[in-house]
Design goal:
5-stranded antiparallel beta sheet, 110 residues, elongated, mainly beta, disordered N terminus
């Protein structure tokens, strides 16, 4: 009976797979006012065979210019996808942070 209890999946420790690097696929993204654009980031985990266990956090420096449509974006197959919406003309920085690693993209709204 004790061997059965030790082999349950709930008794196994959760293996953390930290994010090793985050890189933006493009340095600058242009979006029209009122429209949306998709920004993609390449995510590399410490163990490349598994997805990272670190949480994804997305911030926009000036929320009056652009906003994030999908804040809770999951990392799938090594790619994080974030959707931004243009609010008014100008440019701002979009930062994606996964664990201790981050990447920035300039969002220009026309």
């Amino acid at each position: 009976v004790s061997a059965f209890l030790l082999n349950r999946s709930s008794d196994l420790p959760v293996v953390k797979n930290a994010c090793k690097s985050v890189k933006a696929k493009k340095k600058t993204v242009t979006v029209k006012k009122g429209k949306t654009a998709t920004v993609k980031f390449t995510v590399t985990a410490a163990n490349k065979k598994l997805a990272t266990t670190d949480k994804l956090k997305v911030t926009v420096k000036n929320a009056k210019i652009a906003s994030v449509v999908t804040k809770k974006t999951s990392v799938k197959k090594g790619v994080a996808t974030v959707t931004v919406k243009g609010k008014k003309k100008g440019s701002t920085k979009l930062t994606v942070k996964i664990g201790k690693k981050s990447a920035k993209v300039t969002v220009k709204v026309k």
